[in-house]
Design a protein that fits this description.
By secondary structure, the protein is an all-beta fold.
């Protein structure tokens, strides 16, 4: 059984920083793309950042130059460094990963962590 567990959310003032972590555990044979999504109240879930297995990263326009995604393959962990936070970044942040379990590749999701940015 595979699990993704996020940590690092919280309350921060505008202009501040937070670092989110997401660790995968279980019977993992490999991890392809790792992603961070967010969902604000009343809005659809949106892709914030993604990183491939060879460390190619991509970002939503709204977070470019402020957020940095990275991964530690030895720890099966993905990070999201969030700087210059704005109130509009307030949302529940979810990590997701394409994980190989024996012969299958499936997308797994974390439970979400709340990020609140006060003005």
């Amino acid at each position: 059984q595979v699990q993704l567990v996020e940590s690092g959310g919280g309350l921060v003032q505008a202009g501040g920083s937070l670092r989110l972590s997401c660790a995968a555990s279980g019977m993992i044979f490999g991890i392809n793309d790792m992603e961070w999504y967010r969902q604000a109240p009343g809005k659809q879930r949106e892709l914030v950042a993604q990183i491939t297995s060879d460390d190619t990263a991509d970002y939503a326009d709204s977070v470019k130059s402020r957020f940095t995604i990275s991964r530690d393959n030895a720890k099966n962990t993905v990070y999201l460094q969030m700087n210059s936070l704005k109130p509009e970044d307030t949302a529940v942040y979810y990590c997701a990963a394409q994980i190989r379990v024996i012969l299958d590749i499936k997308k797994y999701w974390g439970q979400g962590t709340q990020v609140t940015v006060s003005s």
